[in-house]
Write a structure and sequence with these properties.
Blueprint (H helix, E strand, L loop, with lengths): L7 H10 L25 H11 L4 E6 L6 H14 L3 E6 L12 H20 L8 H11 L13 H14 L1 H11 L3 H20 L7 E6 L11 H14 L9 E7 L3 H4 L3 H4 L6 E2 L14 H14 L9 H11 L3 H21 L10 H13 L6 H13 L10 H9 L3 E6 L1 E6 L1 H12 L2
Parallel strand pairs: 1-4, 1-5, 2-3, 3-4
Antiparallel strand pairs: 6-7
Helix pairs in contact: 1-14, 2-3, 4-6, 4-8, 5-8, 13-14, 14-15, 16-18
Length: 445
């Protein structure tokens, strides 16, 4: 029997500290400020001020890549707005939207109403009652022959609301039925949805018409195209936020929608259609400059993120190794944590195999394997894609030759093959692990 590995509990503790990806609440000791040192460059502060200054309902868009900390920053925005005296409702649309299927105005509004009803009940104790705007909204749907649930309304109305949201998130057939039944009656859908929202706003304001109600719609950036549905998913998001922009302004509400990065190049005039507020971009941490050299300030932030989660990290990694992983991740927190976890797993495996001379720290070879594992998941990359990625890498822009390139660019953004940074102006670059592939392709005979 192998002797007990005295280092194993620490390895597991470090690994687990990097596995908790839940959004951090305001004041959480794990939270590390990223852009707050420069208020003019902080999109969250800008959003809070824009909403605080608005005189009527407004629409704002926040974009960024999956896993780069937007949900945590939305919690900060919620805290800022509440400190300004506003009522804030934060919804996680992953619980109400099927993220890999096309999204139309009909099922989106239905999901949004379900999310609003559930959140306001749980946070503010607002019950949905019969003969209310919400019950009339569900009545409208059943009259349109949308088969919601085999449940009587009455006291079960909140149960119906929750179940409808669940079905839209899980049941592709139900989602498709909603879309088909309501395409010809969108005006009625919008009118009923707006009547419910207006009633809800009045109940939240409790007689104070000057009180602002803010709705933060999180996780819509998680929508992604998969397989045969990919093109239709991308197109549906463009149509929703561009073609149906007028219906996304909700009466009495200041709304912040998170949107996927691929929406921006595909709908370049979208901010104007949604009321004129500029799109806010939450970037990856700035670990590299445009010329490819490292950014010490960004690397210091990446180190502090690890420091707060596991102060004894130096027992397993050198600072040089930590900075290497930070740069290889491109400032993407999710990839950064993953690379560090894989290094720890490599150390654990090595200690199991080499019983006589157990390594005590992560080696560079272990890091190489972790980086190669991440690299392999992007492959195979067709030669034509490599040429396009090479153009983006050198130009630091989208490098569109024409509108025919949009589907390819969308794929790159959706797959995190290119990354967004903010240093004065937004710029783009290829994921660092792919840059080596492009170079090897150029060197090939």
């Amino acid at each position: 029997m192998n002797p007990i590995d005295e280092l194993l509990p620490k390895l597991k503790a470090f690994h687990n500290a990097l596995q908790n990806s839940k959004p951090l609440e305001s004041g959480d000791p794990l939270y590390v400020p990223i852009l707050q040192q420069n208020p003019a460059a902080d999109p969250i502060l800008q959003l809070s001020q824009r909403i605080d200054f608005a005189v009527s309902e407004s629409v704002n868009l926040l974009t960024g890549f999956r896993g780069n900390g937007k949900s945590t920053e939305l919690l900060r925005l919620k805290h800022l707005l509440e400190n300004q005296g506003h009522i804030v409702i934060l919804t996680n649309m992953q619980q109400y939207v099927l993220m890999t299927k096309p999204l139309e105005l009909a099922d989106f509004l239905l999901s949004l109403i379900a999310a609003l009803a559930n959140r306001t009940k749980s946070e503010f104790g607002i019950e949905s009652i019969k003969d209310s705007p919400l019950s009339r909204f569900w009545d409208f749907l059943t009259e349109t022959q949308v088969e919601l649930e085999q449940v009587e309304f009455g006291s079960n109305l909140d149960m119906v609301t929750a179940k409808v949201g669940m079905r839209l998130q899980r049941d592709a057939n139900f989602k498709r039925q909603v879309q088909e039944k309501l395409r010809g009656n969108l005006d009625g859908l919008v009118q009923n949805a707006q009547a419910y929202i207006l009633d809800l706003v009045k109940r939240l304001q409790q007689g104070d018409a000057n009180k602002k109600i803010v709705l933060l719609v999180d996780s819509l950036e998680q929508i992604r195209g998969v397989g045969d549905d990919a093109r239709s998913v991308y197109d549906s998001i463009v149509e929703l936020f561009s073609g149906q922009a007028a219906n996304l302004a909700l009466p009495g509400l200041h709304v912040v929608y998170t949107v996927p990065p691929f929406l921006i190049p595909r709908a370049p005039n979208i901010a104007r259609n949604l009321g004129g507020n500029p799109i806010c971009i939450w970037p990856n941490i700035h670990v590299r400059k445009k010329d490819g050299t490292e950014d010490p300030a960004g690397l210091a932030i990446m180190q502090e993120i690890i420091e707060r989660r596991y102060p004894d990290w130096r027992q397993f990694y050198t600072q040089t190794q930590l900075f290497r992983l930070a740069k290889e991740s491109g400032g993407d927190i999710r990839d950064y944590f993953r690379l560090m976890r894989e290094g720890l797993l490599g150390l654990s495996a090595a200690r199991t195999v080499h019983q006589d001379a157990k390594p005590a720290a992560v080696s560079d070879d272990m890091l190489n394997r972790a980086i190669m594992q991440l690299t392999n998941e992007f492959q195979p990359i067709p030669e034509q894609d490599k040429k396009y990625l090479e153009k983006i890498h050198h130009s630091k822009h989208h490098a569109l030759d024409g509108m025919d390139d949009l589907p390819t660019l969308t794929r790159f953004l959706d797959a995190n093959m290119i990354m967004n940074y903010l240093n004065g102006k937004p710029w783009y670059d290829v994921h660092p692990v792919l840059i080596k592939l492009l170079r090897s392709s150029d060197d090939a005979p």
